[in-house]
């Protein structure tokens, strides 16, 4: 009987994922309500629970996809994978107000450029503090601090060592996870309660998963505004980091 | 029909991603440049147009609303498949770089958005009166 149950769950991974996420969210909203009296938003708790599950999954399997590497839970990988995630992000635009986006458009574009430069510079400075001196490693780590996709794209384009590329991915992952978890906590201190700030936020932070998760836990109505800028960030980073930013770094450090 | 809404979404999504890939290729980088962002803009414009023409009925909107309501659950599934172990294993450099960039970025956000008190009358609830189903527009369209 156990075997039959196991097969049912294994053969219907995506459906199982719906059930798991539903139960997780129910628990999270329950905890939010009873233990934090609603101060900590239910979806913030659910995201933290998700990350904890991802950690457990990663430790158990040694894989790269958290819980989704456990064979029973591959459906989580499908549900939370790039395809459905991007599809759902696009659908949030249905609730967005185009005139708001137009109004904040220029600030949004500006924040994208500032965001990429700022992350890059912070990454390079910390790499410097850790004793890296060659332009290739500095650029790769700086790019990874932008997002965990810009890091490896840049690193392989300019020929960084795989050790440095791994480091750049890890820096980007830390950024993404901290943004997911931390956004609801800082939201009120940085005025993150209106579409304009959300667009700036997406442009400055840039990590799509971090911004998407963080805003969802702060106020779902802000998601489309943050996402519309954040989704340009990785592309801009992949464009600037191996070219302009690499040349600048090379000019300064060699 | 509900599928019309889902299909509108799918068409916007695919054209956006196509556009992003095309732009990436034109710029000579091996990445999608803002495909999802373009898709969102397409969807916003298309929905505005269809609403004006009164072609977006309630069922069609439900097809769109379902997916935007599924957004948070999908984000949670996404968080459950992050490479948390690698992030923590990246060593102290990765953690310091990640934490520093997030803290500094948080500090910069209010400077760019015009201060944390600058938008008092502009909070999301005042600005976005429509709900996930399209708010007032829907009432008008389904009359």
UniProtKB/TrEMBL annotation, chain A:
It comes from the Bacteria. One of its GO terms (molecular function) is sodium:malonate symporter activity. Residues 7-253 form the Malonate/sodium symporter MadM subunit N-terminal domain. The keyword DNA-binding does not apply. The chain crosses the membrane at residues 12-31, 43-60, 72-94, 106-130, 164-186, 198-217, 223-248. Keywords: Membrane, Transmembrane, Transmembrane helix. NCBIfam families: malonate_madM. This is Malonate transporter subunit MadM. It comes from Cytobacillus depressus. The lineage of its organism: Bacteria, Bacillati, Bacillota, Bacilli, Bacillales. The gene is madM.
Automatic annotation (TrEMBL), chain B:
Pfam families: MadL (PF03817). Signal peptide: none annotated. Keywords: Membrane, Transmembrane, Transmembrane helix. It comes from the Bacteria. One of its GO terms (cellular component) is membrane. InterPro entries: Maln_transptMadL (IPR004690). The chain crosses the membrane at residues 29-50, 62-80, 92-112. This is Malonate transporter subunit MadL. It comes from Cytobacillus depressus.
């Amino acid at each position: 009987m156990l075997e039959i149950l196991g097969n049912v769950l294994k053969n219907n991974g995506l459906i199982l994922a719906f059930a798991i996420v539903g139960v997780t969210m129910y628990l999270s909203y329950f905890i939010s309500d009873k233990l934090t009296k609603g101060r900590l938003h239910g979806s913030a708790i659910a995201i933290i629970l998700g990350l904890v599950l991802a950690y457990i999954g990663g430790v158990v399997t040694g894989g790269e996809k958290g819980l989704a590497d456990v064979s029973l839970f591959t459906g989580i990988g499908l549900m939370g994978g790039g395809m459905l995630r991007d599809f759902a992000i696009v659908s949030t635009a249905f609730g967005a107000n185009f005139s708001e986006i137009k109004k904040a458009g220029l600030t949004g574009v500006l924040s994208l450029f500032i965001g990429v430069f700022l992350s890059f510079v912070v990454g390079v400075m910390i790499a410097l503090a850790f004793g890296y001196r060659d332009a290739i490693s500095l650029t790769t780590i700086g790019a990874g601090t932008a997002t965990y996709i810009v890091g490896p794209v840049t690193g392989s384009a300019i020929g960084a060592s795989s050790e440095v590329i791994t480091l750049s991915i890890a820096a980007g992952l830390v950024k993404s996870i901290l943004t997911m978890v931390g956004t609801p906590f800082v939201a009120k201190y940085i005025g993150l309660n209106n579409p304009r700030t959300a667009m700036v936020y997406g442009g400055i932070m840039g990590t799509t998963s971090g911004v998407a998760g963080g805003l969802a836990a702060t106020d779902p109505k802000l998601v489309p505004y943050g996402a519309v800028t954040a989704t340009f960030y990785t592309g801009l980073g992949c464009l600037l980091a191996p070219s302009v930013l690499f040349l600048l770094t090379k000019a300064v450090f060699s | 029909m509900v599928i019309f809404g889902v299909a509108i979404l799918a068409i916007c999504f695919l054209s956006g991603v196509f556009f992003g890939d095309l732009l990436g290729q034109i710029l000579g980088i091996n990445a999608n440049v803002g495909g999802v962002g373009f898709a969102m803009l397409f969807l916003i414009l298309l929905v505005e147009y269809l609403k004006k023409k009164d072609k977006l009925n309630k069922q069609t909107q439900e097809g769109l609303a379902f997916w935007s309501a599924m957004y948070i659950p999908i984000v949670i599934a996404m968080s459950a498949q992050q490479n948390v172990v690698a992030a923590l294993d990246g060593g102290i450099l990765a953690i310091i770089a990640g934490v520093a960039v997030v803290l500094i970025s948080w500090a910069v956000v209010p400077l760019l958005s015009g201060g944390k008190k600058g938008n008092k009358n502009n909070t999301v609830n005042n600005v976005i009166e429509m709900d996930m189903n399209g708010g007032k527009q829907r009432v008008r369209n389904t009359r």
